[in-house]
Fold this protein.
Amino acid sequence: MTPDATDWALLRLLDRDATQPASVLGRKLGLSQPATWRRIQRLEQAGVLTGRRLEVDLEKLGFGVTVFLGVKLATKGRVSLEDFERAVTAIPEVQMVVHVLGLYDYRLRVVARDLADFERVLRRRIMTLPGVGDVEANVLLSEERLAGPIE
Amino acid sequence: MLDDIDRRLLRHLMADPDMATTALAARANVSGAVAARRLVRLRDTGAIKGVRAVIDWAALGYQVEVSLRFTLDKTVSSAFDDFLAAARKVPEVLEIQTFLGRVDVRLSIIARDMAHYQHIYRTKILALPHIADIESLMDVARIKSAGQLPI
């Protein structure tokens, strides 16, 4: 779909805080509550708004360490990809798995309580995955999510 | 610190941020009053930072997502600050992470297609300051999305 300027403004508001009711959003956009609601519906139906995400402070929840892993498979083929994906998604500490093209085959985001806990996850869960080859670890220091090319 | 009730509430709320407090309380096996009080506390202490809309950029015509990994020229003391400040000004940048490891910074950028990506890469990415090296990985598929935590 091609959003108009009001849709973009609405997306920007929802990107900051998706708990705002349609009446509040409407007031900020100069729209009535039903008109705002209809626009949200349209964005949902077009697949632009796919849901909501709870933003948490990982450190306050006891996860002091986040690590991005680049994983290269040692053996390739359809079966090994499927086996690897099934096993890696089942690991609770693995928050995200992305299949990538380039230097690595997968990017994983792993959370742990501390470095000792991360080492345990790496040794017992990651290094034992079917087909796993090279693994590169980068420890997250800071992170920002930006609004993106909202026009 | 978090106790079991907080953990149960967070677990259900992360799986479905739209859940009403009464439904959440029933799932977590506590009274509505307890759930409401705990949620206020989790927000006040900053453990819950907010709820943001999930925007599917592909539905808005951004078909390409690329992960760019940078090493910076650390002989310049302001390399990180300069680079991050400039990267924040590129609208197509969705995420910025800094790391301890072989990679210094990762940017997640989106583009409408490969030609558009090429244009962004040449005019905006290569123009970022203090780059020593760049590696790019193209996202093919999201196998598991960030959100769940082992709590």
About this structure: The two ends of chain A are 14 Å apart (CA to CA). Residues 5-45 of chain A form a domain with the Arc Repressor Mutant, subunit A fold (CATH 1.10.10.10).
